[in-house]
Amino acid sequence: MTVLAYRRDIDGLRAVAVLAVVLFHFGVPGVTGGFVGVDVFFVISGFLITSIIWRERQAGRFSFVEFWARRARRILPALFVMIVATLVAGWFLLAPKDYEELGRAAHYQVIFTSNLLFARQHGYFEAASDIKPLLHTWSLAVEEQFYILFPLLLTLLSSRLKHWRLALFGVLLVSFGMSVWAVEHEPQKAFFLLHLRAWELLAGAMLAVLPAREWRASPALAQWVSLGAMGLILIAVFGFDSQTAFPGTAALLPVLGVVGLIWANGQQYTWVGRLLSSRVMVGLGLISYSWYLWHWPVFVYANYAAVDGLSATELGALMLLSLVLGYLSWRFVETPFREKRVLATRKAILVAAAVGILSIGLTGVALRKADGVPSRLSEQALRYAQAKKWSPELMACMADKDTPDERLFCHFGPKNPAVSALVWGDSHATALIPALEIGAKKHDISLMEASFAGCVPLDGLENIARCAHFNRRVEKAMSEQPISDVVLAARWSLYLYGQMSGDKEHALKDPSTGQYVRAVAEQRFADGMRARIKGLRAAGHRVWLVKEVPLQEIIVPYRLSRLAMMHRPVDREGLPIAKHLAREAFISNLFDELAAADSGVRVLDPAPQLCGADGLCRVELNGRALYTDDNHLSDVGARHIEAFLEPLFSSLQSRGLTAN
């Protein structure tokens, strides 16, 4: 295929790509599939880079080092400036955990592997990804990896094989096949990894190395192909959304669309080509790389600072700001380096690239090792942020699969062989330990606690084999010593309904289908609870059922520290009590029913200690966070609700079950 010195329509196509991505990220209504703009970029990159390599190889002047130096000159200066600016802004805006993660991402990106990092984290469309200022660099990492490997592959195939184009097309098909499989089985990897995206770049590459032919398409054919190709891209941009299984077969629409447009407009001057070649589209295309670099950090930091979201007007202003920053980056960073007005020699640009990679990479490592430099924060913000960590003593009380029998239980109160009560459950039982310590000491009661994260203390409902093993060990230990009272404490709703986010991984499934059905989960839970109480009562134990603390819709230390950094009030933070009561309705009714049916069963509810007359279940008290995350009480939170355990300790004391 004839390679033109300059194609205005391809710059216009870049404008389509960047507009799709930016409008999607800024939440413009209707542009639900704008993420396919990245796929448009991939095909364009594959076509242009292969065109350059192949043209130079045919002329006998291709150099790997020169090629990589040009890529460094084109990509790295603007990228490094954006990363440095993002790190500087993060110093003033980000909570320690987020700043640590930013350092990690910066380190990975300068060694061209940020896509590998993000593939191991949250999915691209998940809410957690909206606080990653460098998330968008995953696509640059894919392209950079392609630029390193593809020239070697093309040279190897074209110099050793007669039908090397067929071999290259075979590589494309293998990559596409793996992508289709991965979308179904490993969707995050399918989205982020080079070998599962390579087929898109190779689609452009194949177009660039088509054998030259005398025949040219007729104007009518070129017109229809260009119109149909643009239609494929627009269908994807406006028809796809975050629920679309992507890339896989769905990515064929934008990929074939770009291939069709490049081919058709290389044959004839079409209506679509005329539109793409307009001054506005070419102008946007020229700055598309820099605009892409800047739009996402601007959005993330503004949304981060706003805490509660941005209005449509604010989003529009931010989009314009990102465009201005993109233009400035293109004008004062991209262009001077590309035109060799700065670091003109190959050696100079490669040395500068190495220095930049080393400097930013080491900075990222330092931020990780410094835990996000918490000393940056104000005293109050730091106090909130530190609530996310449990003390080592608390963590030591939570069993794991390797915990020996002699360390299965944690003991509180006076040292005495006669233990009055056992607190048994998952990590929510662990979170109660500060309150248990206070009560045990105050009432001179000896008690012990056994907990295992994610393990419901009910027979037959354990989703994980190690949970069943843990419960059997607790039951055996109980049978070997006199324990009058058993306190069951857990995040019950997790096993009934899954996470607040909707994730049903830990929820009880229908045994016959393996699927989650709410009614089945509730029935299994009720049956399991009744069976557990029946067994405990038959063994002579009094039973105390602890309702769970209000689950929050925010990561509390993270949210409060952000608010403190922005000098924003925190007094209205917390879950509305109506939401808590609605989620807990089935559990509350079941517990109350069980207590009413047997005087040896009592219910304890911590919610009244946390929920006030203002209708909120609070997350902060006197400058301290009451939670370590969105569901576990902090040390301060547990001590604050200690009074809700008073009926337990008073009952134990009144029956003379003391250490004396």
Structure description:
- The protein has 660 residues and is an alpha/beta fold.
- It has 2 domains: 8-376, no CATH class; 390-549 and 577-610 and 635-654, Rossmann fold.
- The chain has 28 helices and 11 strands.
- A hairpin with a 2-residue loop joins strand 10 (620-621) and strand 11.
- The longest helix has 30 residues, at 64-93.
- It is elongated, with a radius of gyration of 31 Å.
- The mean pLDDT is 92.
What can be said about this structure in brief?
The chain is α/β, with parallel strands linked by helices and 660 residues long.
Total strand count, please?
11
Counting structural domains, the number is 2
Helix content: 55-70%
Low-confidence stretches: none
State the major sheet: 7 strands, mixed
Compute the gyration radius: what is it? 31 Å
Q: Mean pLDDT score, rounded?
A: 92
In terms of DSSP E residues, the strand content is: 5-15%
Strand pairing plus helix content: what structural class? alpha/beta
Assembly state of the chains shown: single chain
Q: End-to-end distance, in Å?
A: 95 Å
Described by the principal axes of the CA atoms, the overall outline is elongated
How many helices? The count is 28
InterPro entries: Acyl_transf_3_dom, Acyltransferase_3, SGNH
Keywords: Acyltransferase, Membrane, Transferase, Transmembrane, Transmembrane helix
Domain Acyltransferase: 9-330
Protein name: Acyltransferase
Question: Helices, strands, pairings?
Answer:
Layout: H1 8-25, H2 37-58, H3 64-93, H4 96-110, H5 114-119, H6 137-160, H7 164-185, H8 187-192, H9 194-208, H10 219-239, H11 252-267, H12 271-276, H13 279-286, H14 288-306, H15 312-338, H16 346-369, H17 379-385, H18 392-396, E1 398-399, E2 410-412, E3 421-425, H19 427-431, H20 433-443, E4 447-452, H21 465-479, E5 485-489, H22 492-497, H23 518-538, E6 542-546, H24 556-565, E7 574-576, H25 577-597, E8 601-604, H26 607-610, E9 616-618, E10 620-621, E11 624-625, H27 635-640, H28 646-654
Parallel strand pairs: 1-4, 3-4, 3-5, 5-6, 6-8
Antiparallel strand pairs: 2-4, 7-9, 10-11
